[in-house]
Each structure stands twice: as structure tokens, then as C-alpha cells.
Amino acid sequence: MCILCYGLTGEEHWTDARVGHEPRASVRARRRAMLDQIMRAHGLDYSDDPSGVTALISNRKGSVEVAGGLGEVWVAGERLAGRPLDPLDSQLLKRLAPSVEDGAA
User: Fold this and answer.
1) pLDDT tens-digit map of 67-100
2) How many domains are there within the chain?
3) Considering the domain boundaries, does residue 30 fall inside one?
């Protein structure tokens, strides 16, 4: 399926579920910020479209991958980084903790 058709399907990932009365846009913005921080810690850049359906992951050598959902983000990131990415790595979580506590993520 081409990227345009995939984007038009309107498939929603479980992480887009609202928590209480929080708007989906807020949930996606928080997820986007967290993914951006995690990817940057691995030398990658992350961005997604406003709907959150597709994401672009790139390395600093100019390679870019399109991911069609959160599960594909990790696969694309690992391919571009050339190593496994562990978002629950204790050292990574320690580095990210101050920004999470400050409400930046």
C-alpha cells in the first residue's frame, strides 16, 4: 500500500487513546516529544504528521525511513542506528528523567 493510501485509512494506534478528558492532540504531542527525545539519544531525528499515522525517522547521514505506526518506529530506528534501540534502557531513562520531571515531555 502506498503512503498516501495508508494515511487515508485512518487506522488508530492504541497509544492514541485518550486518558480521561485529555484531547488526542495532547496525547500525540506528548508522545511525539518523548519519541523525539529517545531518538535523539540514539543519534536519530523523529517527526510525524499531525494525525500521527506516519512518522519520519532519519539519521545524521541523510538516510530517512517512513514508519506507519509506533511499532515500525522502533524497527526503522534500529535499521538507521545499526543497533537495537531500548527505550527502557536504565541509562537512557536517567538522562531523560530531568526533562520528564520538568514537564518537557
Assistant:
1) 988 889 999 999 999 999 888 888 888 888 875 5
2) 1
3) yes
